Amino acid sequence: MSYPAAVRLFEVGARDGLQNEKQEVPTAIKVELIERLVEAGVTAIETGSFVSPKWVPQMADTDKVMAEITRKSGVVYSVLTPNMTGYEMARASGATEIEVFSGASEAFSQKNINCTIDESLDRFAPVMEAAKQDGIPVRASVSCALGSPFKGEVILPAKVADVSKKLYDMGCYEVSIADTIGVGTPFKTREVLEAVANVIPLEVMGVHFHDTYGQALANLSAALQMGIARLDSSVAGLGGCPYAPGATGNVATEDVVYMLNGMGIETGIDLNKLVETAWFISGFLGRKPVSRVANAMKAKL
Ligand SMILES: CC(C)(COP(=O)([O-])OP(=O)([O-])OC[C@H]1O[C@@H](n2cnc3c(N)ncnc32)[C@H](O)[C@@H]1OP(=O)([O-])[O-])[C@@H](O)C(=O)NCCC(=O)NCCSC(=O)C[C@@](C)(O)CC(=O)[O-]
C-alpha cells in the first residue's frame, strides 16, 4: 500500500454536475458556483463543455461562463471538447486546459458522441496537435470503464487499458478512468486500474467515480491504495450523463475531502467553505445535497 501524501482534486460540479439538470441554471449561478469553489481552495475546475447545444443544452452558455468568471492565478479552468469545433471555442474562451473524452463502451460512444471509439480518437488527433501548438494541456476521460449502461455489453479491462494507452500516447497528460454508471466495487475497480497501470504510468492516472450504487468512496479508497492521486469529484454530489441511462451523481467533493482529511492526505480545500457551496447550489436547485458530509455539517455552519 502506498497512499499519496497529497492529491489533485478535479472539481466537475459545474459541468458533469449541471449537464443533466432538468431546470435551466442561469449563467450567473454557474459563475458564482465556480468562484465559490475556487474560493474554497479548488485549484482545478471543469467550468463547462463546448459540445453541441442540441445534444447538451445545459452547457450552451459555457462561453459566457468562461467570459464572466473572475479568474484566480494558478487555477486550472478546464472545458470538455469532443472535436475541433469545440477546441476552437475552448481556445477562444481562454480555457487553460481541455478534456477529450472517449470510452470503453461502443454503445455509449454512439449514443454520447455519435461515433465509434476509434472515430472519436481520430477526431482527437487534430485537437491534440492544435493544443500542443497552443501550449494547452489536455486531459482525457475514459467512460464506462467499470460497466456499460447498455444491457448485454461487457466491458473488458483490456479494452479500458487499450483506450487509455491510445489517449496517453496521443499526448494526454492525465487519463481519468470513469465509472460512468457507478457500478464498480473495490476489487473490480482495482482489477481495471491495474490493467491500465500496466500500460500507462500510475502518476498520470486519475479516477472519476459516480456514486449510483454507493460504492464511490470505497472505490476511491482502492485507487488511493494503489497510489493514484488524481481524483474527480462534484460538489454536492451533482452529476450524471444524459446519454448514460441510470447514471446519477458523482462522488461528492465534501465526502471526499472529509475522508482525505481524516486520512491525513492533503487537498488544500476548506471543508466549511465547500459545504457552504454545496448548500448554495443545492438551494438553487431546490433540494438538499446528496452528500452525507454536507448534511452532517450543516448544523455547524
Ligand atoms: C460530438 C457531437 C458534436 C457529434 O454530433 P454530430 O451531430 O454527429 O456532429 P456534427 O459534426 O454532424 O455536427 C452537428 C451539429 O453540431 C455542431 N457542433 C459540432 N460540434 C460542436 C461543438 N463541439 N460545439 C458546438 N457545436 C458543435 C455542428 O456545427 C452542427 O451544427 P448544425 O449544422 O446542425 O447547426 C455531439 O454528439 C455532442 O456534442 N455530444 C456531446 C455529448 C456530451 O457532452 N455528453 C456528456 C459529456 S460525456 C460525460 O459526461 C462523461 C464524463 C466525461 O463525465 C466521464 C464519465 O462519467 O463517463
What are the salient characteristics of this protein?
single chain; eight-stranded parallel sheet; 301 residues; TIM Barrel; binds 3-hydroxy-3-methylglutaryl-coenzyme A; 12 helices; alpha/beta
Task: Provide an overview of this structure.
With 301 residues, this protein is an alpha/beta fold. The protein has a single domain (8-300), classed as TIM Barrel, CATH 3.20.20. 43% of the residues lie in helices and 14% in strands. The protein is built from 12 helices and 8 strands. The chain has helices at residues 13-17, 27-39, 62-68, 84-93, 106-113, 117-134, 157-170, 186-197, 216-225, 253-263, 271-285, 292-297; strands at residues 8-11, 44-49, 76-80, 97-103, 138-143, 174-179, 205-209, 230-233. It has an 8-stranded parallel β-sheet with strand order 1-8-7-6-5-4-3-2. Helix 9 links the parallel strand 7 and strand 8. Helix 10 (253-263) runs antiparallel to helix 11. It is globular. The structure holds 3-hydroxy-3-methylglutaryl-coenzyme A. The site of 3-hydroxy-3-methylglutaryl-coenzyme A has 24 residues, from helix 4, helix 5 and strand 5.
